[in-house]
Design goal:
seven-stranded mixed beta sheet; about 15% strand; eight-stranded parallel barrel; alpha/beta
Length: about 950
């Protein structure tokens, strides 16, 4: 089998060389080949070139294109080239022409007439076609409707053509957790597409894209094609991605399904186009990486799946989609071996790539279909960049075969021969570094089993909350609690650091076991949507584990130098009772972080949670005390205490009490400053740690990618109804993009799901209570009076629900621009240029989080340096700081103390004692 496969591959290579398929770097029509060759020479050039290509569609003038080319690529060129006036002028004149030529080499047309012309040219060569509308996603219902109409127009105007459909283009991307709602909407839309295709005799191929879409795509297509209306229709198709570890099981599932259905469909077998993305997203979230980690593993799987498909061609029609000569040769060889006629399978290849291979296939009687991207350049740029990335990867077949001129024997080598050197199986999650802190994974709600667990936990927790009684504390209770806490502190402060850390570690493990229960409590008590609740539980677990590790490191290392004859050491001593005043908006994570940081450093703790979220606090304290009683029973009494009551009375009394030594607070600026005054007036002074909110800002410049920026801004502004201290409440847009960006933002905001946060479909629930509702509505009324409201109010459920609100036209000193609102309200500001945008951003007393969406390296450097915030986010939302990765805290009036979740936070809960000993005795110096 191997010898015959190699012989076929070598014939193909020989044919291609005879067709003069090498790269011609001196013809402008082969600009993409020039870029490929340049990017191979240096990885830095590759990255810079692709960033430049990615930003090109939004650059309006030749001058801008020349500027960005200079920013990205010029540093890697000889100075005499990029500094010359001729180079600059030539770049300005040629940039538009060059990018259009490059795009046309990959994209078959921007309208139906151009597509018809391209199709005709290919059919005259004996090729068939599959049209793919460019665009990865729809941000709004308006955009989704536009894509849907485009699909129907193509089907009706390009009869008997293969059309590829992306489900992500058919619905807005603002409600990813609404599994059943998405599925129902998509099923109705795809049903109409199928009906139109039947009339026009088109084949509809449903693309699988990102891994998170696979389950819903496969489930939806299987259910729809089992309906009586479509059960006998054989012009449907699906995509199978061989780089997914699950793909073998997926193929078996499709075979079983096809047997039940009785009518075959087409399976387009691909390697997969999102390897870098899937790997990075999985690693960021702590999920198992769904793709094979080694290229040869994907190659092996691809060949195995090819053989299974060819063996079962009566159930699933094989469409072998690859540019890898080895993969094509395996398919040809195996089909010949089993005596399969060439009419029972086809090959598929991308438009504009390896035309000699397509010609070889046609000349030798094989069916070959060309996958043809169709549409405008801007939505298609991500496709173009991805194609270039694939083609220049170090292990890319095209790179090795046609740019590196690798030996043919190496290129057609059996990938199974590469198995031996691989020590770690990539079918397992990547191993964690035992010496490095690792964040706990969030829950992957794209998995059905996890959605079922969450729904069950909510059902159970609703009963639990109904049966929970909370005891309201009085002043006498406070005195008794302080006395117990003081006695506990005196003992606990002497406990070994290892014991204290072990308590936090054990509690973290127990909290992970009860993740769904605490998620549900958060969703029910403070109205957090599923994903927000789950992320908070993860953050609480991370705080426990991280501070446990940090405490051991602090106690293990002396940071002082010593000279001969002396010994200098530093020691950490607990301060006493820590009063933790925690907020309602993060009643688990922030409360757990502040209180356990104090506990692990040897202090006793009194927790005064917000009266709006006492149940979550109560349940966590029960959990932590169980860990104390199990691991440190001699220390547990009176060590970790809960006080429930009004902040104005109970909170103030405890803050002023002479035995409380630390006040750790998260909440409003007014309350925080009053507590800080109490701490400073006390004698001795108390240690004050405070996070006091923000009026957070995101800047969007003219080079930003709106497909990336708009979802990030909507999440930053409206997730959890804007009730985060880090939420974006000011959006500054450069004048050149203001109007267009605003319109897309408005349309996207209309698609946000508002409803019960215990429902998986909800993105935006109610605000915390009627008092907050009235306050926020007062701000909105003021904004509407003095500015222009851009979003109409929607029909809302009963309760404290507020529609997302976007307001423009306000002065910089307006209270909506300057004051923290804590609700779903976003103010738009127009900036003349980037300097003006930075000036507007910094005209605020708060300085917590800020963000920038830009693809200009120079702009990113400038705003990073000049924006006055504690946490700065580039091309990502300005909320969602992760413990140990984005230590959280602000400047100006936003914070007092070190950042939470960072390496210095624990230092605030101890005194540092320096001990210096003279070790000389009558002239003798001990070693």
């Amino acid at each position: 089998m191997q010898n015959s496969t190699e012989q076929i591959a070598k014939k193909l290579f020989k044919y291609m060389k005879g067709q003069n398929s090498g790269l011609n770097m001196f013809k402008l029509r082969n600009l993409k080949d020039l870029l490929l060759k340049m990017s191979i020479a240096q990885p830095q050039i590759k990255q810079s070139l692709f960033h430049f290509i990615d930003v090109l569609p939004v650059l309006k003038s030749s001058k801008q294109k020349a500027q960005f080319f200079t920013e990205y690529v010029a540093p890697y060129l000889p100075s005499f080239i990029h500094q010359s006036q001729i180079f600059s002028q030539s770049l300005e004149l040629g940039s538009k022409l060059a990018i259009n030529i490059m795009a046309k080499s990959f994209i078959c047309g921007s309208n139906i007439e151009e597509a018809r012309k391209s199709i005709k040219q290919l059919t005259e060569k004996g090729l068939t076609c599959s049209i793919d509308i460019l665009g990865e996603l729809a941000l709004s219902q308006k955009e989704a409707d536009h894509y849907y109409k485009d699909y129907l127009d193509l089907i009706e105007n390009l009869n008997e053509t293969n059309i590829s459909v992306k489900l992500s283009a058919l619905i807005p991307q603002t409600n990813q957790l609404d599994y059943q709602g998405k599925k129902n909407k998509l099923k109705n839309l795809l049903r109409e597409i199928y009906r139109t295709a039947i009339k026009q005799q088109c084949l509809i191929n449903v693309d699988t894209e990102h891994y998170s879409w696979k389950e819903i795509t496969y489930e939806l297509v299987q259910e729809l094609l089992m309906e009586d209306e479509f059960r006998d229709w054989d012009h449907a198709g699906i995509v199978l991605q061989a780089y997914l570890k699950e793909s073998s099981d997926d193929l078996q599932s499709w075979l079983n399904w096809s047997r039940k259905r009785g009518t075959p469909i087409t399976v387009r077998l691909v390697k997969g186009a999102y390897w870098d993305y899937e790997r990075a997203i999985a690693m960021q979230n702590g999920f198992e990486v769904p793709v094979y980690q080694q290229k040869h593993e994907s190659d092996i799987n691809y060949e195995n799946l090819t053989k299974v498909l060819l063996d079962n061609h009566k159930l699933l029609r094989p469409a072998i989609a690859s540019h890898n000569i080895r993969s094509l040769s395996v398919a040809i060889n195996y089909a010949e071996k089993i005596g399969l006629d060439k009419s029972h399978y086809e090959f598929q290849m991308l438009y504009g790539m390896l035309d000699p291979v397509k010609e070889y296939l046609i000349v030798h009687g094989y069916q070959c279909r060309v996958y043809m991207p169709y549409g405008q350049l801007i939505p298609g740029m991500s496709y173009l960049v991805r194609r270039l990335l694939e083609n220049t990867a170090n292990d890319s077949f095209l790179k090795q075969g046609f740019l590196d001129k690798a030996d043919v024997d190496k290129l057609v080598k059996d990938p199974t021969s590469l198995r031996a050197p691989i020590k770690q199986s990539s079918t397992e999650p990547l191993r964690k570094d035992s010496h490095k802190f690792e964040n706990i994974p969030n829950t992957d709600f794209s998995q059905k089993i996890n959605r079922q667990k969450m729904a069950l936990a909510i059902k159970d927790s609703k009963r639990e909350i109904l049966n929970t009684e909370l005891y309201q504390t009085d002043i006498d209770d406070c005195d008794r609690t302080v006395k117990q806490a003081q006695e506990a502190y005196l003992k606990w402060s002497q406990a070994k650091p290892e014991l204290r850390s072990s308590v936090l570690k054990h509690c973290a493990q127990e909290l992970e076991k009860q993740r769904y229960r605490f998620n549900a409590l958060l969703s029910i008590e403070v109205f957090k949507p599923w994903q927000e609740a789950d992320r908070e539980t993860s953050e609480a677990i991370d705080f426990l584990n991280y501070y446990a590790d940090q405490a051991l490191e602090l106690h293990a290392v002396s940071k002082l130098n010593s000279k001969p004859g002396e010994k200098n050491t530093n020691h950490y001593q607990a301060q006493g009772i820590a009063l933790i005043i925690s907020p309602w908006n993060f009643p688990l994570a922030i409360m757990a972080g502040m209180s356990c940081a104090a506990l692990v450093m040897g202090n006793s703790v009194i927790i005064k949670p917000s009266e709006r979220s006492s149940i979550v606090a109560l349940e966590f304290i029960k959990l932590l005390n169980k860990s104390l009683k199990k691991l440190a029973p001699n220390y547990s009494d009176g060590l970790f205490n809960l006080i429930i009551g009004k902040g104005r009375t109970i909170g103030s009394y405890l803050a002023e009490h002479k035995l409380t030594r630390i006040i750790a607070f998260t909440g409003s600026n007014n309350t925080g400053m009053k507590l800080n005054e109490i701490a400073n007036k006390a004698r001795p002074t108390k240690r004050m740690i405070a996070e006091m909110g923000g009026k957070n800002v995101i800047i969007v410049d003219g080079s930003a990618d709106p497909d990336e920026a708009i979802p990030g801004i909507l999440y930053s502004a409206f997730a959890f109804a804007g009730q985060k201290c880090s939420a974006c409440s000011r959006l500054i847009l450069e004048d050149e993009i203001y109007d267009d960006f605003k319109q897309r933002l408005i349309e996207a905001a209309k698609s946000i799901n508002i409803g019960d946060p215990t429902d998986e479909a909800t993105s935006l629930g109610p605000v915390i209570d009627s008092s907050a509702y009235k306050t926020i509505q007062g701000y909105i009324k003021s904004g509407k009076r003095d500015g222009n409201s851009l979003l109409e109010e929607r029909d809302l459920p009963e309760g404290n629900y507020i529609s997302p609100c976007i307001i423009e036209g306000l002065d910089i000193d307006h209270k909506l621009v300057q004051e923290e609102i804590f609700g779903p309200v976003l103010v738009l500001l127009r900036a003349k240029d980037l300097d003006h945008a930075i000036e507007l951003a910094n005209q605020c007393n708060y300085g917590l989080t800020g963000g920038l969406y830009s693809r200009s390296p120079n702009n990113i450097k400038k705003v990073t340096k000049e924006m006055q915030v504690g946490n700065f986010y580039i091309n990502r939302p300005c909320t969602g700081a992760v413990v140990s990765r984005q230590a959280f805290g602000g400047v100006k009036e936003s914070s007092i103390g070190f950042k939470a979740g960072g390496p210095n936070y624990l230092l605030q809960f101890i005194h540092e004692k320096t001990i210096s000993e003279n070790t000389m005795r009558r002239g003798f110096v001990a070693e």
